[in-house]
Amino acid sequence: MTLNFTVLTDELGLQREYREVKRKAAEGERIKNLRARTDYPRGTIAEVLRLDISGDAVTKDLVGATRYSDDESYVVLEPTDIIRIGDVRYRLVNRPAAVGERVVITKVDADYWAFSLGNVGIMKDGGWIDFNGQGNVGYDAEDGVWRTGIVNGNSQYKVLEPVDSASTTLLSTKPATEQVAENIASLAARFQTLEETVRNQADKLRVARLDIALINEGFADELAALKERIEALELASKPKHVGIGGLTGSIEALAKDLCKFGNTEKTPQQLRDEIVEHAKTDVKALLSGKLYNVPICHSPGSKAIYDPDGYDSVEFVINRDKRTVVALISSSFLGKTIWARGIAKSAPNNVFNAHIGMAIALRRVLGLQVPAEYLSVPNPTEVRVGDIVAFDNRGGERLVMPVTEVEGKKLRGTVSGISGFVYLDAAERHGAPCTNPKVIDDSRMSEVEDSAGSRKEVAA
CA 81 to CA 260: how far, in whole Å? Predict the structure, then answer.
């Protein structure tokens, strides 16, 4: 297996080799971008600020904008113990240095100014280090060299062993003191490797646990909705007896149900439109009525009354980047204190819609059951004005564009302040790496009525 390395300046100011590893990153690690983008070029090095709800690495690009990278678009840079000075590769070894060996300062006492982190020098007889003018060190006029005082054992430096040099001297032929020193150095190196392995495994375990938690959180509602639909179908398939006296009424009710739920000619887009309209109506109705037994978020098990005609009000916080809607209930009587909270998160494969999210979040904050239709709504099959689409252009750059006009197979919009268009069949017209535009958000928030409650949008 071929290993790739990237050379970066480390915390000591030295050129360290970093191993490129294909795995999910952890918070605080460095990653290397593999995709070509205008403001996030291939090869860009970034530090992972955090992992979002879907497990993507959150970083900053060259212009300071937030970037979300899935684990297929980067490699993790794991630091090694190999340092490059000029064309020579050295391995950092934690052991006492022999006279004439090259060392690097890795620790500095706060009250000792004689040398700095990253200073490289040669070990001299008596524990003196000759820095040859490097760093904030003293000049000895007697022998004409730059050097510092005796360091505190080997706790302030590490030895730089040339990687490519090979000694032909057998360990058993060396003096006893050198044999002990090399054995200790070998054990220290093995211990350091084990420590790094344990640390990496701990990071991988933490990321795996986070993935499991995200999967459980992201699909719990979908599984519950599927269970409800199966139970409803099983119930509907059971034979029912209709009495003669209620025959007419039963037929009318059955006809209405068939018209409402049994129309197989409705397209996925029509079903989605109906559910979105239902969600809007649902939000208006719930906001206008008094409800009892609303769970209090900061007091588990306690409940209170939601009274919109009294002191209570609802605010919706919409985050398009994280694809979440949060419903917050506060009371002016308590100084706008938030006392109830509900959240809705769009599943990774679902198109985000703030109206549906508001209905789910509101029902959850009020302690009400969420209808199965909200959790199993089909994705849109049409692109309309106000939708937000995402696609890869001919340069492989991922673009997100609000649609301002639809002309046949041409979608017009603005990206980063520049007007342009994309074809619905861009992939077929131009080939890879182009992709067809896909709707990622059909909220069209300008359609939200003023009576739908206070709302605000936030960035990730």
Answer: 68
